[in-house]
């Protein structure tokens, strides 16, 4: 150590500089020796491939076309970030089994910051004790088999009320002999029904039928939330572009976030006032307890990772409301659109209902297990039109080797479910709507993340916790609608299947259908 005081400082600086240079040169040489996945062409300076996530082009379609050119696994650049795009079920299986712990986190984005309570929203938060604790609470207090059975009366009552409203609308808008049809915008009907159902379960509030103005506001905020959640902005590619808000997307995100927080805060304060009014002996029986009640009573046992209790409650409840209402409404819209464009499928579904249920009583949830063709319709809809075609982006938290390719840590990951679920090597005539495939050759395939050819709700640790609940809603609503009414197209042109930009690919046009009752009046 005595020798150090005799060294020339400049020599020390040069030596350190040489060490740094040698380190980076050797690291780059090692990277070149590693086999990286192919990178797609068409990147722009600075922003990379970010332009494919904006404009009128649908990202999952563009990425699917790229897969045809570059293969089922390739990379894109989102500014400074590398993204791995996967369109192959075998690779998805390998990732979610051998490497699931490394792909269960979320990248940071402007949408996560502005719309996700600075990434404390459950769907957007990184993999952490905070995420695990909240996921466990949701699974027990809202989405467990026990809780779903306790809340069954909400689902049943809302579906019955909505069917009665359609029948009443038909009566009011028909001729005295009641022999005609009534025009109904079904996307709106699906949206009102699912929002009422989920709001009661999460915050104990029935909004349509009591406060139409608040209902429309909540519905618009949820749709805007989902829309902007799937949009990347320049600052996602290059953080120094944070001041550049092209198109005003970030401004709109902040506006939607403020509206969303205002609604959530109002509901939270209502729950606090109710709890205070009940005093220290405040208890609620399971049948009356909503999810916000459960969070208020159990939030102290959760590792909040620096988040305030109020923020955690609001973020989690809004996440459940947005995902629970939007996903189901989107799939219902696609399912009915596909059936209207394939009348033989609609006819077979109604014939099955008449055989299993008959026309002397209403459909109930116990009938669902026997409605095999209806289940196949739902699966085929989820295969062709998954509610979130690219799912939520993930991020590798460690270096991985996939199919002989080296994938560096911090790489973003996208599962192109739209492309993966239309693989012609798995599905015959993959672009055709054929529910019978799930009765014949793909009878054993389900949507719970066990069969990687069909993963509309995701896979691994990040699979949607509400899969069972979503399927219950889808089957119950479709079964009651098809059992209760004859449905026909407004014109012979067919239903427009145009998709829109956003996290979900909901069709952009109204879904107008002509309805007439199928059952005796006393059943409505």
Would you kindly provide a brief summary of this structure?
48% of the residues lie in helices and 7% in strands. With 524 residues, the chain is of the alpha+beta class. The chain has one domain (34-523): Cytochrome p450.
Based on the model shown, name its key terms.
524 residues; alpha+beta; Cytochrome p450; 48% helix; 7% strand; disordered N terminus
Secondary-structure blueprint of this entry?
Elements: H1 9-33, H2 59-70, E1 73-78, E2 81-86, H3 89-98, H4 110-114, H5 129-141, H6 145-150, H7 152-172, E3 182-185, H8 186-203, H9 212-229, H10 234-237, H11 249-278, H12 291-298, H13 309-340, H14 343-356, H15 372-384, E4 394-395, E5 400-402, E6 405-407, E7 412-415, H16 417-420, H17 467-484, E8 485-489, E9 512-517
Parallel strand pairs: 2-7
Antiparallel strand pairs: 1-2, 3-9, 4-7, 5-6, 8-9
